[in-house]
Records
---
Amino acid sequence: MKIVAITACGTGIAHTYMSAEGLKKAAKEMGDEIRVEIQGAMGIEYGLTEEEIEAADLVIIASDIGVRGRERFENKKVIEMDPGDIIGNPLKEYKKAMANLK
């Protein structure tokens, strides 16, 4: 499965980056392809392209705040996740989110 994701948290530092790494690790373990955009204290890093979004089967938003550019995913299936949950147990939370797709 091709996935694009956005991670963000209130301060835009630790949880933003840690949840991005957790998503990447879990997706790899499940055999999925993922690209993660980080919306942190430094602004938007690793911004998703229109082509990546178009090709994606799924969008994951791991944020406890609003994210910029959410309208880009208007016609996509979107899963919302808590960044803290992903940090605590990335694979478990990833599998739970995927199970809710069906």
---
Amino acid sequence: MRTPPGKPEGRRKILIVDDQEPMRLLLAQFVEQELGAEVTLAGTCEAALRFVGENAYDAILLDLMMPGIGGAELLRRTRADSANKTTPVVIVSVLVDAPVEGMSLGSAKALGANAVVSKPVDRRTLVAAVKAQLGA
């Protein structure tokens, strides 16, 4: 978790879930710099499950292609039973049209994903998607 000293009250909390460390760090840089958000990083869905079970987030950025239980199952479990049942989830995936873990991104939206951003990630597109979800 990256928590800068002197965290201002009301600062947005965002969970970033991606198994590729460079991508986690890039996404963290975007939301920290552009939105001033407090970021929690998870490299596995199992770690993310612990985080969503213990913390409430303002938004979650989630890669679907993850080892272990996978991003789709994390999304299902988050929506089924956690403090983050209604937290906006932005899927960040290289597979925008192909099925992942037996589900399409349309199915992911049916499970509760709020927005989709394709990889490679464009900074402005990602920030706009997150801002839209935070404002919703």
---
Amino acid sequence: MANLYDIPLTKIDGTPATLNEFSGKPLLIVNVASKCGNTPQYTALEALYQRYKDRGFLVLGFPANDFLGQEPGTNQEIMKFCTTEYEVTFPLYSKISVAGDSMHPLYRELTAQQPTAQVADPKYRADLESYGTKYPLPGLLWNFEKFLVDRNGRAIARFSPEMQPEDPRIISAIESALK
């Protein structure tokens, strides 16, 4: 099992990074997209970040264009969209792939640690799987899939895209991770 903290990343401004800078803090890692039906979740993700950031919690956004071309912009366009349309202040990273052969190592490890997601609506998940996506992988991802990482850098929960960030199950898991 790889250490999530050591995986090389790039911030949306092009700066090299790792998650090591957040060692000891709970993280909610979300693959995001600007042209998705779930895009309004940016508002609730920002609210979560604001609610818990003083306790060390972070939301981290990873734009991905793997699903129906729903994140076609450049990193600069994505950043502008997120900050002007949704007033996002939580950290954003450069666009990556979260599926298929080019899946970023971070998502390879997250999905290995949490192969299945908690779902709010099993029909929603079945509909996603029936899309016949380009990458029919076990544990299918979609935009706005959420991975909760504990203070030790382990993925401890995974939430399906239709689970809103303010869902009581997500809030409860964050509260537990903050203890």
---
Amino acid sequence: MNYKPFLYALLGLIVLLGMLRAFRSSRTVTAAQEEAVILKLKLASGPMGSEEERTIIAALEQRIENAIKRSSVGDLDGDEYGDGYCTIYTYGPSSEKLFTAIKPVLNGFHASSGSYALKRHGKPGSKQDRIPLDTE
């Protein structure tokens, strides 16, 4: 039995899969390259907030994540607590579209004085717009 045609087909398939992987990975954008909306929520109860604050913010994050997914504009990447703030990170190709998707959720949230959103228009170090979120 002649195995050459089989080997050539297998080799061709391996090369094709490698080319597809290289093409796909060259189009993948990392969070560091994407635009961002970063929410800085001032906590009322110490550097890490109270259990009640963390519960309220967890529910807010779920609503934000759902709004982003419904709009297909990016991803919620997580949060970070410390220094009296909860920082929520969202990323996508357009900070304007991200903010538009999550703004209705933020409008229904009573943020403490000193809370704000940063719309980053590009990779880290790019121009940012600061939008106050406090309702007080």
